[in-house]
Amino acid sequence: MKINPKTTALLIINMTNDLVGWGGVQSLVPRLQRLLDRARKSSMMVIFSSLAFCDRGSDSGQLGIYWAPIGKGEVLVKGTDGVEILRELSPKPGEPVLQRNRYRAFFNSDLDRILHDNAVETIVICGYSTNFCCDSTVRDANFRDYKVIVLEDGTAPIALQDSDGQTISAAQVQKTVLANLGRGFAQIVTVDEVISALDKT
């Protein structure tokens, strides 16, 4: 694969303090640290996007109905340490840190304007969670005609239950969601493949 760092942005989704204890988030940190360091050395644009809601979840809408802790204002509240980016991935001066109140990173944020203003054509998407915020963002980016790259080992899913109450494991969710995105929305690669591509630039 080839990556032009001048026209590519690394989009890191939901790597915040309130979510670090959620399934699979902490394990992403070392890989994303390596990727972030390499992207910065290549002068690739880095953007952070995190969920953040008003007090008591008053602006959470339907999302707050499906995720009670958000709807009740127990997590991801604007102005709290919980919505800050993890210390290990701390943004550098000049790197946009965008907040939003829906799954997709383009919603209620300046993401599209920032990408256009910086002539970005390709977005590398990583973070949490594969099957909600990352999936929604990938699809939206695809609809806006960006080339999208998703990191299979740089994203983590949320396990599900089917209509019979049977658990669908996180591993199965990850496999299925990425297979679907790879079929019609994005290129699916590993962190090391992106780093290798940057090493060749």
Concise overview:
With 201 residues, this protein is α/β, with parallel strands linked by helices. The protein is built from seven helices and eight strands. The chain is globular, with a radius of gyration of 16 Å.
The dominant shape is: globular
Q: Looking at this structure, what is the CATH superfamily? A: Isochorismatase-like
Give the tally of structural domains.
1
> Under the CATH scheme, which class?
Alpha Beta
Largest sheet: 6 strands, parallel
Work out the helix count.
7
Helix residue percentage: 25-40%
- Residue ranges: pLDDT <50 for 5 or more in a row? none
- Known CATH architecture: 3-Layer(aba) Sandwich
The helix/strand class is alpha/beta
Radius of gyration of CA atoms, rounded to a whole number: 16 Å
Structure description:
By secondary structure, the protein is of the alpha/beta class. The chain has a single domain (5-199), classed as Rossmann fold (3-Layer(aba) Sandwich), CATH 3.40.50. The chain has helices at 25-41, 61-66, 68-71, 111-117, 130-143, 170-184, 191-199; strands spanning 8-13, 45-51, 97-100, 122-128, 147-156, 160-161, 167-168, 187-189. A 6-stranded parallel β-sheet has the order 3-2-1-4-5-8, with helices on both faces. Helix 5 links the parallel strand 4 (122-128) and strand 5. Helix 1 runs parallel beside helix 7 (191-199). It is globular. The termini are close together.
